[in-house]
Automatic annotation (TrEMBL):
Originating organism: Streptomyces bauhiniae
Gene Ontology cellular component annotations, sorted alphabetically: cytosol
Annotated positions of the N6-carboxylysine modification: K156
Modification comment: Carbamylation allows a single lysine to coordinate two divalent metal cations.
Metal-binding among keywords: yes
Protein name: Dihydropyrimidinase
Cofactor(s) needed by this chain: Zn(2+)
One Pfam family cited in the UniProt record for this chain: Amidohydro_1
Gene3D superfamilies referenced in this protein's UniProt entry, alphabetically: Metal-dependent hydrolases, Urease, subunit C, domain 1
Family, per entry: Belongs to the metallo-dependent hydrolases superfamily. Hydantoinase/dihydropyrimidinase family.
EC number: 3.5.2.2
Length: 467
């Protein structure tokens, strides 16, 4: 039996349009759109009608970078797929792409199977996987082809973390050459980890153990150098490149230069780099540990370059890199040695709101908000137009957003399974009211109405964003 939902009188915002339109949903998909008040819209009938007068009607957010239950530094990221995807839904995100991990000595298949097992039956919203490649060898390269065919079309490599996820330039080049052949997208953690490890050792020897030294040793220049090197390796391989969690203005400059040359080079930044800074890393009483992630937070001056990059499309995507560790018991592992603080920050619930705040403050337009948070990540990772837009045939992943509601972000009220908020006390204008995932209400007027297992695995096509 078909079930129809009608969303009336909202301001429909996509990456390309703003229009007062009624949205008809049938069997989990967008069935039709019509300008509100027109005969076509008046003819829509449904079992359930949502009045969105005064509200925005936007595509569900697509967060292309999360780490639920990720093992790191002897512990695990605190959100499970169940708690993390529920929190994502609360924040207006209806799709995540999480990172499955190949262990050194293991296969891609083993890593991917393990992540499927963690996620299956537990997610409140739809999900896909990227693959972290930590061990490039002949077998791994062959497996990359198989993964692309089954919908895991992007592969993260690390120029940082020697001895853990690190790949050397030869391994990176080989993986890029393979991606050039099979259509995969290489995602790069661009920091010179070999040089950083020298600076870490020297800092600790000087007794510099506080969290703020994490920011000092992971220098902007070493992000820029790695970004430059990754771009050149990708150019040699003839492969597209997506640089994750860009934080340094010098790295943005490298991306800008490559894009001016017409290369298929893309960049992602995250809310923490847009809204937080080394001032947070320097908070006393070890509180700075809450903000330890890599690439690290930068001095406030870098933020202007990130905002500019988002406006000029030298940066295309804002993802969260959601990787939460509790202050108590997890971040504390690094008391007395900043290099032992688990790297990562919570944020999957906050991204859509923080970026709406950026609209309110004039950094980006409403349509650009939807483009960088929904449409482009969906295109970049091969899910468009099923995800990332509101158009006939698309999945009915829809958020009713109240642009006038006021809220204060706090760990007291958030839904992520972590004991602090990186944005504690921050005032936001705008709030998610109702969220549909494939037509099913998972948040209904600020109440959770979803369930674990509603979310399904989403295989992806290859990148849809190439020049
Ligand atoms: O500090 C971070 N970003 N932790 C998550 C792993 C990664 O490098 O993305
Ligand atoms: Zn990374
Ligand atoms: Zn990450
Ligand atoms: Zn369900």
């Amino acid at each position: 039996m078909s079930r129809r939902t009608l969303i009336r009188n909202g301001l429909l915002i996509t990456a390309s349009d703003e229009i007062h339109a009624d949205v008809l949903i049938e069997d989990g998909r967008i069935a039709a759109l019509a300008a509100s008040g027109t005969p076509a819209a008046e003819a829509f009938t449904a079992d359930r009608t949502i009045d969105a007068t005064g509200k925005y009607v936007i595509p569900g957010g697509v967060d292309g970078h999360t780490h639920m239950e990720m093992p790191f530094g002897g512990t695990y990221a605190a959100d499970t797929f169940e708690t993390g995807t529920r929190a994502a839904a609360w924040g207006g995100t209806t799709t995540i792409v999480d990172f499955a991990i190949q262990n050194v000595g293991g296969t891609l298949r083993e890593g991917l199977d393990a992540w499927h097992q963690k996620a299956e039956g537990n997610c409140a919203i739809d999900y896909g996987f990227h693959m972290i490649v930590s061990d490039v060898n002949q077998e791994t390269l062959k497996e990359m082809d198989l993964l692309v065919e089954e919908g895991v079309t992007s592969f993260k490599q690390f120029m940082a973390y020697p001895g853990v996820f690190y790949s050397d330039d030869g391994q990176i080049l080989r993986a890029m050459q393979r991606a050039a052949e099979n259509g995969g997208l290489i995602m790069m953690h661009a920091e010179n980890g070999i040089a950083i490890d020298v600076l870490v050792e020297q800092a600790l020897a000087r007794g510099e153990t506080d969290p703020r030294y994490h920011g000092e040793v992971r220098k902007a220049l070493l992000e820029a150098e790695a970004t430059h090197r990754a771009i050149k390796l990708a150019q040699v391989a003839g492969a597209p490149l997506y640089v994750v969690h860009v934080s340094a203005q010098e790295a943005v400059a490298e991306l800008t230069r490559a894009r001016d040359e017409g290369l298929n080079v893309f960049g992602e930044t995250c809310p923490q780099y847009l809204f937080l800074s080394t001032d947070n890393l320097a908070e006393p009483d070890f509180e700075g540990a809450k903000y330890v992630c890599s690439t690290p937070l930068r001095p406030r001056e870098h933020q202007a370059a990130l905002w500019r990059g988002l406006r000029t499309n030298d940066l295309q995507v804002v993802s969260t890199d959601h990787c939460p560790f509790c202050f108590s018991g997890q971040k504390e592992l690094g008391r007395g040695d900043f290099s032992k603080i688990p790297n990562g920050m919570p944020g999957v619930e906050n991204r859509m709101d923080l970026l709406h705040q950026a609209v309110v403050e004039g950094h980006i337009s409403r349509r650009r908000w939807i483009e960088i948070a929904c449409a482009t990540p969906a295109r970049m990772f091969g899910m468009y137009p099923k995800k990332g837009t509101i158009a006939p045939g698309a999945d009915a992943d829809v958020v009713i957003y109240d642009p006038h509601a006021e809220q204060v972000i706090s760990a007291e009220t958030h839904h992520m399974n972590v004991d602090y908020s990186a944005y504690e006390g921050k005032r936001i204008t705008g709030r998610v009211e109702t969220v549909l995932s494939r037509g099913v209400p998972v948040i209904t007027e600020r109440e959770y109405t979803g369930h674990a297992g509603h979310g399904v695995y989403t295989p992806r096509s290859t990148c849809q964003y190439l020049n």
